[in-house]
From TrEMBL:
Highest rank taxon of the organism: Bacteria
Name under which the protein is recorded: Small secreted protein
Disordered, as annotated region: 163-212
Source organism phylogeny: Bacteria, Bacillati, Actinomycetota, Actinomycetes, Kitasatosporales
PROSITE patterns given in the database record: PROKAR_LIPOPROTEIN (PS51257)
Amino acid sequence: MNKKLAAALSGGAVLVLTLSGCSDDSDDKVNDWAKKVCDQVQPQLQKIANANAAIQEQTADNSKPADVQKTDSAAFQQISQAYKSLGAAVDSAGPPPVDDGETTQKEAVKELNASSTAYANLKTKVDALDTGDQAKFADGLKGIADELNKISTNGDQALKKLQSGEVGSAMSKQKGCQKPTASAPPPAAPSAPGSDEESKPASPKATATEKA
């Protein structure tokens, strides 16, 4: 019953990182900016990847609704926190030293914060699902998967702009801005939704770099 949700999650979009390293035509100032951002980005991308993996683990048809709810809730919480931290990282780095850098930076921060809010709302919705009725629960998950698809396909234009041109080239060379793999296997979802431990499944737009 969680398969649609897992599929939607893996189709989302994230700040980074299918950027392919191209020729180094970035100047030192742009490279310094990219390093400042990417050093802070990697831990958050790892949390998102781990959260996605946790949801993937709960895709079996015989998964209990209560277990799915607990895992998904913790994952959405962690993804929401990760996007908030990504927004803070781009914000604290200041505008990239390129034409129209300030506008690009502000729009990217706005999108990342909006994604954080969207995932927090999904957590609230999954928490409210009725785990006592499997059919209703499955319908509720389908609705959440549909919302995830909308989050994935809307509102990432500013992030795409941030990843283009000279700034994108500089970011693509930074290890911190490259797509991580989830630590395997992800442990059971934490009971405390606010858990911020690296080893616990967090949670999306996570492996969503495919769209960049």
